[in-house]
Amino acid sequence: MAELLKRWFNLLCKNHDLNYIDRQCDKYFKINSKLEVQRQFINYLMDRYEKHYGESLRKPKKEVIHNG
């Protein structure tokens, strides 16, 4: 009987931990989704600015030099 109680308690703790991890993952995915929408909006605004004023707000990409 004591072994069953021990197994039950371990399963209860494991389930609690898994639920907590799941909630944290849900928060991460929600924040990540909002960031993606914000990134797309910023890109739209920068493209519109570039089209209107003819200037790019983006930094030029660094040229990669390969040795070898």
Q: Strand content of the residues, in percent?
A: under 5%
Name the helicity range.
over 70%
Instruction: Kindly report the average pLDDT value.
Output: 92
Question: Which spans have pLDDT < 50 for at least 5 consecutive residues?
Answer: none
Number of helices: 1
In N-to-C order, the SSE pattern is H
Tell me how many strands there are: 0
The structure class reads mainly alpha
Computed over alpha carbons, the radius of gyration is: 25 Å
Report the sheet with the most strands, covering strand number, pairing sense and barrel closure: none
Q: Calculate the terminal CA-CA distance, rounded to whole Å.
A: 70 Å
Based on CA inertia axes, which overall geometry fits?
Answer: elongated
Helix and strand layout, with pairings?
Blueprint: H1 2-53
Describe this structure as you would to a colleague.
The protein has 1 helix and no strands. It is elongated. Helices cover 76% and strands 0% of the residues. The longest helix is centred in the middle third of the chain and has 52 residues, at 2-53. By secondary structure, it is mainly α.
Search tags:
single chain, 68 residues, mainly alpha
Short description:
With 68 residues, the protein is mainly alpha-helical.
